Amino acid sequence: LDASTLSQASGTLTPSSVGGMKTKLEAAGKAAEFGIPTIIASGFDRQVIQRIFAGDSIGTLILPKKDPTK
């Protein structure tokens, strides 16, 4: 994730929201630094995790760029 991508993301938009897209991307970026892939997907779908593991193409996959052990 680069600065350009993060600059396009917004913070929390409503009082009932917890973290905005910018926060989610920052967390995914930290995970990627340690070699951990992350999927950002809707929390409104009660079956989202099952659908991801079933192979449905939903959400946004953030992959690590390098091996964290090197």
Labels describing this entry:
70 residues, mainly alpha, two-stranded antiparallel sheet, 9% strand, flat
Give average pLDDT, whole number.
82
**Residues in β-strands, percent:** 5-15%
User: How are strands sequenced across the largest beta sheet?
Assistant: 1-2
- Give helix and strand order, one letter per element, not per position: HHEHE
Give the helix level as a range of percent. 25-40%
Number of helices: 3
Strands, count: 2
Indicate the radius of gyration in whole angstroms: 13 Å
Structural class: mainly alpha
Our measurement of the CA-to-CA distance between the termini, rounded to an integer number of angstroms, reads: 19 Å
Runs with pLDDT <50, length 5+? Answer: none
Largest sheet: 2 strands, antiparallel
Q: Tell me, what's the shape?
A: flat
Give a structural overview.
The chain has a two-stranded antiparallel sheet. Helices cover 36% and strands 9% of the residues. The protein contains 3 helices and 2 strands; from the N terminus they run H-H-E-H-E. It starts with a helix and ends in an 8-residue tail after the last strand. With 70 residues, it is mainly alpha-helical.
What's the topology here?
Layout (H helix, E strand, L loop, with lengths): L2 H6 L12 H13 L4 E3 L7 H6 L6 E3 L8
Antiparallel strand pairs: 1-2
Brief summary of the model shown:
With 70 residues, the protein is mainly α.
